[in-house]
């Protein structure tokens, strides 16, 4: 296969991959590399679709944030987008834009997550409290917010 044919195939593959779902530049590059294209061909194909506006990391980040802003903490969303290869400044810009459109209430989200597991006023033993705290911390909530909301909800740890 000639270089031109390979280039055309890589570009076609990039377009086919974008038909099914939006992707980040890194995500598309990784998929093209896994499909057996060289790094040079993958970069050319990504540049090609980017020139047409078919791929845009800022748009991807904004859509991602808007879809998850009521389900996940800010920190967790930043972590996930970083893992998808989007740089911190792009994520920050998209977050600020999303906040203008829809203000997230992390404390309300934290309350919702706690209420799924325990009623307000519940008394937990040390093990249950550790498990709840770990569950919330792994979802990106800050310690101060977790303890503050637990206190507001009157969820306490019983001494054993």
UniProtKB/TrEMBL annotation:
Domain RecX second three-helical: 56-94
Gene3D superfamilies reported in the protein's UniProt record: Winged helix-like DNA-binding domain superfamily/Winged helix DNA-binding domain
UniProt xrefs under InterPro entries: RecX_HTH_1st, RecX_HTH_2nd, RecX_HTH_3rd, Regulatory_RecX, WH-like_DNA-bd_sf
Chain coiled-coil ranges: none
Keywords for the protein's UniProt record, in alphabetical order: Cytoplasm
Example GO BP: regulation of DNA repair
Superkingdom classification of source: Bacteria
GO CC term (a single one): cytoplasm
Signal peptide residue numbers: none
Domain RecX third three-helical: 105-150
Compartment(s) of residence: Cytoplasm
Residue ranges annotated for the RecX first three-helical domain, each copy included: 10-47
Function per UniProt: Modulates RecA activity.
Family designation: Belongs to the RecX family.
PANTHER family: REGULATORY PROTEIN RECX FAMILY PROTEIN
Identification of the protein by name: Regulatory protein RecX
Species for this entry: Blautia obeum
Protein encoded by which gene: recX
């Amino acid at each position: 296969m000639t270089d031109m044919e390979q280039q055309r195939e890589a570009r076609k593959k990039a377009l086919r991959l974008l038909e099914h779902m939006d992707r980040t530049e890194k995500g598309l590059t990784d998929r093209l590399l896994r499909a057996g294209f060289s790094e040079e061909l993958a970069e050319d194909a990504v540049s090609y679709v980017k020139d047409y506006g078919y791929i845009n990391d800022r748009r991807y980040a904004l859509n991602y944030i808007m879809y998850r802003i009521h389900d996940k903490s800010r920190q967790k969303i930043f972590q996930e987008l970083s893992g998808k290869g989007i740089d911190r400044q792009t994520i920050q810009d998209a977050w600020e834009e999303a906040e203008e459109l829809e203000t997230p209430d992390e404390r309300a989200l934290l309350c919702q997550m706690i209420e799924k597991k325990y009623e307000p006023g519940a008394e937990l033993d040390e093990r249950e409290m550790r498990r709840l705290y770990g569950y919330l911390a792994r979802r990106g909530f800050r310690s101060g917010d977790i303890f503050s909301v637990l206190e507001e909800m009157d969820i306490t740890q019983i001494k054993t």
